[in-house]
Amino acid sequence: MAKAIHSMIRVLDEARSVDFYGKVFGLEVADRLDFDTFTLVYMSNAESPFEVELTINKGRTEPYALGDGYGHIAVSVSDLDAEYARLAGAGITLGKIVDFNRDGGLLARFFFVTDPDGYKIEVLQRHGRFK
Length: 131
Description:
- By secondary structure, the chain is an alpha/beta fold.
- The chain contains two helices and eight strands, in the order E-H-E-E-E-E-H-E-E-E.
């Protein structure tokens, strides 16, 4: 069976993105591979073996057009309210907390945060299928 191992996103500024993903999600640089025209930075933490791969194309100065095909990356946390308060206190721009109900019960509780390049990340309360 296939196993999901990472999601790649293209970013403009390596330091800015590494700082954001470290501050917001506790990710650390697991590996950094430098090539002539691009750099790959793999970020992860002890919570999951899944990684975010940041691709920095050297010489690129214009923001990437995210298009209408990108949806979001999702992470789960044990205490959504505490994470929301922590990030808000750090000056991170956040969407509102949403309680998403289905058939009279809570399906998911979440909010969105946007990284420096405009990528949306969903932060979900660990509950039900979102462990």
